[in-house]
Amino acid sequence: MSLWKDIVFGRDNGMRASIRRAVGLGGAPKAAPGANAPRPEAAEKALNLGVEAPKDVNPPDGYEVVLHKDALKPGQAIEIIVAGKAIAVTNVDGTFYASTNTCPHAQGPLGEGKLDGHTLTCPYHGWAFDVRDGSCHTFEESSIETFAVEIVDNAVCVEV
Ligand code: FES
């Protein structure tokens, strides 16, 4: 039941839940188990996004500023809505990559996946993708679209 709920409504601490909360359609985020308890990874990501995307940057033609480069730590992935499109942004040792956020298997949110080196693994059923070129390690014919990334000043800019 929980898997179906996650597929349809997203995870309680995922991007879709945070969007529902932002527009007043969802409840408060789950309470932390204790003040000194470690935070879930998704909560850490949300806190990191407190670093606002630079507003005084002129991205290259065709690019959009998606986040501050310090908002996403090495080894992390996140889903971002930009220009009406959901993309997954990853940071591999300080190099940023962007791809579609939608897994070709069953539309899993790749930005909520696990990043290990250049491999991004879908949180739903474990299909794995190379963030550099979008190739799929699980099924060769199931690659994902990737987008060019440029860093301008402190801004991560994606060609979408
Ligand atoms: S949705 Fe099944 S592996 Fe991504």
General description of the model:
The chain is 15% helix and 29% strand. By secondary structure, it is an alpha+beta fold. It has one domain: Rieske [2Fe-2S] iron-sulphur domain (Rieske Iron-sulfur Protein). About 16% of the residues have low confidence. FE2/S2 (inorganic) cluster binds next to loops.
What is this entry, summarized?
By secondary structure, the protein is α+β, with helices and mostly antiparallel strands.
Write the layout of secondary structure elements.
Blueprint: H1 2-9, H2 15-22, H3 41-48, E1 63-68, E2 77-82, E3 85-92, E4 95-100, E5 114-116, E6 119-121, E7 128-130, E8 146-147, E9 149-152, E10 155-159
Antiparallel strand pairs: 1-10, 2-3, 3-4, 4-8, 5-6, 6-7, 9-10
Residues 103, 105-106, 108, 122, 124-127 line the site of FE2/S2 (inorganic) cluster.
- Tell me about the largest β-sheet: 4 strands, antiparallel
In CATH, the architecture is: 3-layer Sandwich
CATH topology description: Rieske Iron-sulfur Protein
Percent helix, as a range, is: 10-25%
What ligand molecules are bound, each kind once? Answer: FE2/S2 (inorganic) cluster
CATH homology-level superfamily = Rieske [2Fe-2S] iron-sulphur domain
Outline the low-pLDDT stretches: 22-47
Strand arrangement in the largest pleated sheet = 2-3-4-8
User: Strand pairing plus helix content: what structural class?
Assistant: alpha+beta
What is the count of distinct domains? 1
Distance between the termini: 35 Å
Overall mean pLDDT stands at 81
The value of Rg in angstroms is 16 Å
Q: Could you spell the SSE succession in H and E letters?
A: HHHEEEEEEEEEE
Using the coordinates above, name the CATH class.
Mainly Beta
Beta fraction: 25-35%
The helix tally amounts to 3
Shape: globular
Number of strands: 10
